[in-house]
Every structure is written in C-alpha cells, then in structure tokens.
Specification:
The structure is a single chain. The protein has about 325 residues and is of the alpha+beta class. Among the domains are: about 60 residues; about 80 residues, Orthogonal Bundle (Helix Hairpins), CATH 1.10.287. The chain is built from 4 helices and 14 strands. α2 runs antiparallel to α3. The chain is elongated, with a radius of gyration of 56 Å.
C-alpha cells in the first residue's frame, strides 16, 4: 500500500515538472502559424496590387487618364567645347617698333622741313633738308680734279704711244720707255684717286639730308627751319615702322595666367565706335611686386587718322 502511494506521488510530481514545456511548445506553434498566415496575406495583397497597376498602365496606354505621371528621362551626350571668357582692360597706344631718326652726316643749318607728325612716309624719303652750299662747291672742285687727272693720263698715254714707234729705230732707250710707262700708270692712278674723292664727297652730301630709314608713320618732330643740327643733336623725328601700333595694358596676375601669345583681342579707341581686331603678341614675364600686375602688348593694324600714339584705349 505504501509503495503505490509513492508511485502515485512521483507521477504527480513528474506531471507538475513537464507541464510548462508543453505550454511553451503550443505557444511556439501558434506563433509560427500566425507568421505563415501573415506572409500569405501579404503575398496576396502584393499580387492584387500588381494586377491593379498593370490594368491602370494598360488603360493609360490606350488613352485613358492615369493617376500617376510618367517620369521624364533626359539623355546627355558627353563632349568637349571651348568656354570663352572676356577680360577688359584699359591702356595706351604706342608704336610697336619705334624708330628714332637723327642726323647721320655732318649736319648744318636746316633749310626746310618737309613732313609733319601724322604723315606717312616711304623708305628713303627726305624729312628735312640741310644747307649744302659749301659741300656742293667742294664736290665741284673734286669733279674738276678728275678732269685734270684724266687729261694728264691721256697725255702720258700719247707720249708712250709715240715712244713705242721710235724705239725700234733706236732713238729711245728702254730706260726711257720704262719711265714713260710709269708716268702713264701714275696718271691713270691719279684719275682713280680723284674719282674716289669725288664719290666720297657726293656720299657725304647725300647724308646731309635727314631721310626716313623705313616706311612708316611720323609720330613726333623736334626740328625747325634755321636750326643748326649735328650728329650730337639727338632725336629729331620719331616714327612707327610700317605704321604698326600696339596697345599696352596692365592686367592683374590672375588674368595674365588665363591668356597667352596669339589670343585674339578687340581694341576700341576712347571716344570712337571703332572696333579694331588685334592679337596679343607679348605677355610680360615680370610682375610688378607692388601692384601685382603685368604688361600685355596687343598689336593691331592701324587705320589712317583713326588712332594716335599715347591715346587711351579699351580692350
């Protein structure tokens, strides 16, 4: 009797210990079933929504109204293109190649001045006439000396010719013949000396006048009639060779880095509507340490009477 009670007591004790495990299994089973049902419901609603969107899209393609707007797609083709930038600057006009003109010869008194500033002249054209009355007389004397020397040479040649006809007869010795030949040769040499002296005087006289060394534009004139000039008189005329002018502009250091030789430019004289096409031909390699600016030189073809040296310009 006592043994059976113990067994029953142990069974009841075992049932008490395993009851919580059974409840935990049931809860996990319920949760798993709920998750499966939720997944099935979500799949159903997603499938239903996909069918509704397809029908709406078909209706919109057939011309029916659509609840949502179709996004626009923009296609861009990559490529390269130049970006133009404009830099404005002010400057002054100057001759690109300035030619100072002075006295090349001996100088003297100015008789006439034939040009004025702003005139175009050709190479070798006379700018001012210097008095040459004394030099002309000297050249005339040298010209006469040529004729005297030529006469002596002709006489020496004639005497030599007569002596050669008599030497065969024995009337003239060979020593006399040698002296006559020497006389003839000396006379011819004196003729050449006189000719060289005359040509030298003529060249000096030709250098008395002040002439243009090359074709160009006369910029300044520092000579007047009656003035005494010489090689120490300094610059009497200033010219722009070929009439080539340039604009000299100061640009900031940052702008200098953006330009190069050959860059196109447009030059406008202040007070005019002219637009002169130019080109940068020189960029200063030196920056002013105080202003942080550098010089840019823009060459452009000049039109007569449209620009003047040292006049302000915009570019």
């Amino acid at each position: 009797m006592n043994y059976e009670r113990k067994v029953d007591g142990m069974d009841s004790l075992a049932g008490y210990e395993y009851a919580p495990d059974n409840r935990r299994r049931r809860m996990l089973l319920i949760i798993a079933v709920a998750l499966i049902l939720a997944a099935l419901a979500a799949a159903y609603f997603a499938f239903s929504a996909g069918k509704g969107d397809g029908a709406a899209t078909a209706a919109g393609g057939a011309g029916g109204p659509s609840g949502e707007s179709i996004p626009n797609i923009t296609v861009v083709i990559p490529g390269k293109q130049s970006v133009q930038a404009q830099i404005s600057a002010n400057g002054t006009i100057a001759a690109r190649r300035e030619m100072p003109v002075g006295v090349a010869g001996e100088g003297g008194q100015v008789v006439r001045v034939l040009v004025e500033p702003g005139q175009w002249v050709g190479a070798g054209q006379t700018l001012a006439v210097i008095d040459r009355s004394v030099q002309a007389q000297q050249a005339a004397a040298l010209s006469a000396s040529i004729r005297v020397a030529q006469a002596d040479a002709d006489l020496a040649q004639a005497e030599l010719t007569r002596a050669e006809s008599l030497v065969s007869r024995g009337f003239i010795s060979k020593a006399d013949m040698d002296r006559k030949r020497a006389t003839r040769d000396a006379a011819n040499a004196r003729v050449r000396v006189a000719q060289a002296q005359y040509q030298e005087a003529t060249a000096r006289n030709n250098r008395l006048n002040i002439v243009a060394p090359a074709a160009g534009l006369v910029l300044t004139r520092q000579i007047e009639p009656g003035q005494i000039v010489s090689s120490g008189s300094g610059v009497l005329f200033r010219m722009a060779r070929g009439g080539e002018m340039e604009m000299m502009a100061q640009l900031a250091e940052a702008d200098l880095a953006r330009i190069a030789v050959g860059t196109r430019a447009t030059v406008t004289p202040v007070g005019t509507n002219l637009n002169l096409a130019g080109q940068i031909w020189q960029v200063s390699p030196v920056i002013n340490p105080d202003t942080r600016q550098g010089m840019v030189r823009i060459a452009f073809p000049i039109r007569r009477h449209c620009v003047r040296a040292a006049s302000p310009m915009r570019g």
